Amino acid sequence: MANNADAAALFAAHQPGLLRYLRRAVGHADAARDLTQDVFVRVAGAGSVPPTEDERRAWIFRIARNLAIDHHRRHQIRRAAGTGARGPSASPATQDTSALVNEALAAIDPLDRDVFLLGEAGGLSYAEIALACELTVPAVRSRIHRARLELREHLRGPIAAALKTRT
Amino acid sequence: MDTESVISAFLDDEAFDPADLARVLADATGRDLLLDLVALRALIREEPVATPVRPPRLSRSKWIAVGFLAASVLFGAGAAWLLPPLLRQRSAPGAAVPPTPTHVVTFETGVGAP
Which residue in B has a C-alpha nearest to residue A129's C-alpha? Predict the structure, then answer.
């Protein structure tokens, strides 16, 4: 088991990025908070911790990504069974900007989305994303480019509005 | 590198050729793409596109603390300036030797003595 103090320090250092990543990966703030706590439980209970900082970051975000994937699966099963609440990617009746962003994210390839969010929301470098997702760095670069261009198309309105409020 | 690759590398702190970035930003298409991607990042992170930079303003309690600190520094400096001469005066050589007597009082047995 990882030393509790080490696990707590590790978690504290990455908690803001984890929460931002999970918030967009699952589309719900409450679920993201719960999953962030689950990441901490996994980190604290891990048999060993990777030796370098880059590897540790990639490892923590890989745990977070796997939890987000499980979360999506659970919601898909509930939806298919006709039980449970609406899925995380479903937008509320009132479509605010955040819901539009979540919709746009749900519309792109899931791996492109994960790779993009690990960098954009989680703050990981291309090399760390490559470690977390078991991809090559050129593949990460290519997926991030593709995700950005697709999201730019999906979110033309909100992007223009965000830039307009600045001027 | 193409326009998207250069701007992505710039935004993500990855390696790029500054000459490529200069070429890309010389074109309006490149500038528009950069602005859009900065705004996209802000939307993803739920942050404003940019936060105006203002000098930090001190609250009333912080002003009181700063005033107290300044007064303490001034008091300390004054004490450091005034105390050494006083201490030197008290600890001067011979300061501990008793003064020379000017009167001698002698008691002699008188009335009522055995």
Answer: B12
